[in-house]
């Protein structure tokens, strides 16, 4: 690890807990069956961070956009969307978010698909996982499968969470 990356992580950690929001995009899940929320919330809290917003929405462009604005207004520094990133006609999360993002982080999607390839093989190419910034917040969008959410969280998001929040706010 480079010295500057290590230094940035230390500075970011000193800034304190990160406020996150979770948005699940699904036409079939209920709050009770939302396994991704029930996985992410305790993981976030275990690391000392907080969940300041949660929304379960249908895969409708207006709902995706409204949820993004709501979570920004709730003070989330990092907004985690899950679901709606595939190529089916109903998958609109990527399309809406990609229009809203001010800066994209292509590396997130690239790394996610690389990790997914090890899990699901060539089907990884069907994912349109993405990340970027919007109004000085980090927005991350992953597929809705529980395994995809867990891989993204453990391998990519959690290790850089404080660093991401600090970079976009400074």
Automatic annotation (TrEMBL):
Which Pfam families does UniProt cross-reference here? MoCF_biosynth
Q: Spell out the SUPFAM superfamilies in the cross-references.
A: Molybdenum cofactor biosynthesis proteins
Q: In which pathway does it act?
A: Cofactor biosynthesis; molybdopterin biosynthesis
Which InterPro entries does this UniProt record tie to the protein?
MoaB, MoaB/Mog-like_dom_sf, MoaB/Mog_dom, MoCF_biosynth_CS
Identify the keywords attached in UniProt to this record, alphabetized. Answer: Molybdenum cofactor biosynthesis
The chain positions of domain MoaB/Mog read: 21-164
Q: Which GO terms describe its cellular component?
A: cytosol
Biological processes annotated in GO: Mo-molybdopterin cofactor biosynthetic process
Summarize the protein's role. Answer: May be involved in the biosynthesis of molybdopterin.
Checking NCBIfam families in the record gives: molyb_syn
The entry sums up its family as follows: Belongs to the MoaB/Mog family.
Question: Know the name of this protein?
Answer: Molybdenum cofactor biosynthesis protein B
Gene (UniProt):
moaB
């Amino acid at each position: 690890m480079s010295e500057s990356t290590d230094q940035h992580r230390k500075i970011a950690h000193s800034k304190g807990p990160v406020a996150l929001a979770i948005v699940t995009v699904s036409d079939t899940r209920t709050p009770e069956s939302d396994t991704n929320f029930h996985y992410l919330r305790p993981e976030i809290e275990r690391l000392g961070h907080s969940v300041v917003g949660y929304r379960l929405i249908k895969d409708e462009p207006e709902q995706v956009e409204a949820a993004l604005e709501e979570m920004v207004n709730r003070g989330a520094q990092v907004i985690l969307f899950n679901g709606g990133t595939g190529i089916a006609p109903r998958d609109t999360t990527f399309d809406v978010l990609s229009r809203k993002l001010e800066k994209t982080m292509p590396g997130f999607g690239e790394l996610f698909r690389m990790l997914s390839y090890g899990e699901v093989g060539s089907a990884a190419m069907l994912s349109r996982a993405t990340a970027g910034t919007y109004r000085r917040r980090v927005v991350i969008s992953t597929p809705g499968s529980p395994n995809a959410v867990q891989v993204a969280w453990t391998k990519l998001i959690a290790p850089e969470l404080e660093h991401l929040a600090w970079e976009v706010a400074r």
